[in-house]
Automatic annotation (TrEMBL):
PANTHER family cross-referenced by the UniProt entry: PHOSPHOLIPASE A-2-ACTIVATING PROTEIN (PTHR19849), RIBOSOMAL RNA-PROCESSING PROTEIN 8 (PTHR19849:SF5)
UniProt-listed SMART domains: WD40
Keyword tags: Repeat, WD repeat
GO cellular component: cytoplasm; nucleus
Keyword Repeat: yes
Coiled coil: none
Organism, as annotated: Micrurus corallinus
Signal peptide residue numbers: none
Repeat positions for WD: 13-34, 35-74, 75-114
SUPFAM superfamilies associated with the record: WD40 repeat-like
Protein name as it appears in the record: Uncharacterized protein
Pfam families: WD40
GO biological process terms held by the UniProt record: proteasome-mediated ubiquitin-dependent protein catabolic process; ubiquitin recycling
InterPro entries: WD40/YVTN_repeat-like_dom_sf (IPR015943), WD40_PAC1 (IPR020472), WD40_repeat_CS (IPR019775), WD40_repeat_dom_sf (IPR036322), WD40_rpt (IPR001680)
Amino acid sequence: MKPGLGSRCLRRLSGSDDNTLKVWSAVTGECVQTLVGHTGGVWSSQMRDNIIISGSTDRTLKVWNADTGECVHTLYGHTSTVRCMHLHDARVVSGSRDATLRLWDIETGQCLHVLMGHVAA
């Protein structure tokens, strides 16, 4: 473990068609937290510091506090499954089967830009 990173660097995420996101200990292999809130399967997730982002077939992304498991924001805007995302600083870009990319501010929950151009997902 690198100094200053704490136990967060020893956690892994998984999403499931049971609509949950699980946080696992990379050391013990045990589930240490289950995040409940999506109404569809969780297809993508990423963790950085104390933030977890998840994308779902329910067409939303959720921003979670990794320490408490609390959902901080639900990001609405996609009209189909959220298939992928990338978290960078206070922004996340999400890709959906609706053939759009959306850039979000994870601190406010606001959609900053919608990028269109693909004709199929």
